[in-house]
């Protein structure tokens, strides 16, 4: 029997088929519904309607506010935690890092239900604090995604750079601000992307904490539940464009920082 050989291009066929079936094809369907009406006729009415409807614009701004606040809170909590873990000399460091990941192994519904019970005991009626509870719920859910990339970046930093900064007369604060912080920006950018983008659409957390219709994900779901596939597809397409733009901006910032290096 002859030998069967596979080229590298052949090995890429399954991945190509996956992309076509589960990425390209759904995206084309989304574009089709976004730029057609209920009769299948081409129209820009859905696009115009998005920017003229106060409900959709208000939902977009509210979603951005929740996502930005959640990202800021996660960053304020995650950076000191990641820095302390990365710089500690504890032998059980990996075990401590694992404790931040372990909650993600618990069922999502169970975690949010437990959080809801705790918040109810503290606050009473959750509906009185919708924005606060949205930020708390999102932070609780996404905090590990901010800690891990920052930790991985700091723990890999070359200690000789800090030693060089100290030899040049920098104290601990100056060494942190001019060496550690700039070189940890790629981890910060990755963490921001991993928190900000999902926080704009993860309406499940808010629906489990209180009945919410303010996040973009729930608005899209409402359109599709009402069989308005055209309006829902346009909102989803615009949200996808915003996510792509944000990804490009964060990637550009990360590449620019990696070229610049530390500010000695």
Q: Low-confidence stretches at least 5 residues in length (pLDDT < 50)? A: none
The helix content is over 70%
How many E-type strands?
0
What amount of the residues lies in strands? under 5%
Gap between N and C termini: 65 Å
In CATH, what is the class? Mainly Alpha
Q: Taking Cα atoms only, what radius of gyration do you get, to the nearest Å?
A: 23 Å
The CATH topology name reads MetI-like fold
Query: What is the CATH superfamily classification?
Result: MetI-like
Q: In sequence order, what are the helices and strands, one letter per element?
A: HHHHHHHHHHHHH
Domains (count): 1
- Please state the average pLDDT score: 84
Textual characterization of the structure:
This protein is an all-alpha fold and 264 residues long. The chain has a single domain, classed as MetI-like (MetI-like fold, Orthogonal Bundle). It has 13 helices and no strands. The protein has helices spanning 8-11, 13-34, 45-52, 54-87, 93-101, 108-123, 130-155, 159-167, 172-183, 185-199, 203-209, 216-225, 229-260. The longest helix has 34 residues, at 54-87. The protein is globular and about 70 Å long. The model has no long low-confidence stretch (mean pLDDT 84). The chain crosses the membrane at residues 12-35, 60-83, 95-114, 126-154, 175-197, 234-253. It is found in: Cell membrane. It is a multi-pass membrane protein. Keywords: Cell membrane, Membrane, Transmembrane, Transmembrane helix, Transport. InterPro entries: MetI-like, MetI-like_sf.
């Amino acid at each position: 029997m002859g030998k069967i050989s596979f080229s590298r291009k052949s090995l890429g066929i399954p991945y190509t088929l996956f992309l076509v079936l589960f990425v390209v094809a759904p995206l084309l369907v989304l574009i089709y519904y976004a730029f057609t009406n209920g009769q299948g006729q081409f129209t820009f009415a859905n696009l115009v309607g998005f920017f003229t409807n106060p409900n959709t614009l208000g939902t977009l701004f509210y979603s951005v506010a929740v996502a930005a606040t959640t990202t800021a809170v996660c960053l304020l909590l995650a950076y000191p935690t990641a820095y302390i873990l990365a710089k500690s000399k504890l032998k059980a460091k990996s075990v401590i890092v694992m404790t931040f990941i372990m909650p993600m192994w618990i069922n999502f519904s169970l975690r949010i239900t437990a959080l809801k019970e705790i918040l109810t005991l503290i606050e009473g009626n959750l509906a009185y604090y919708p924005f606060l509870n949205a930020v708390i719920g999102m932070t609780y859910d996404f905090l590990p995604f901010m800690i891990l990339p920052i930790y991985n970046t700091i723990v890999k930093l070359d200690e000789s750079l800090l030693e060089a900064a100290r030899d040049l007369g920098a104290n601990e604060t100056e060494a942190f601000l001019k060496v550690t912080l700039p070189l940890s920006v790629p981890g910060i950018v990755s963490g921001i992307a991993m928190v900000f983008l999902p926080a704009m659409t993860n309406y499940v957390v808010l629906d489990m904490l209180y009945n919410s219709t303010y996040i973009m994900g729930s608005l899209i779901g409402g359109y599709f539940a009402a069989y308005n596939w055209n309006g829902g597809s346009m909102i989803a397409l615009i949200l996808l464009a915003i996510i792509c733009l944000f990804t490009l901006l964060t990637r550009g910032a990360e590449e620019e920082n990696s070229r610049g290096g530390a500010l000695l």
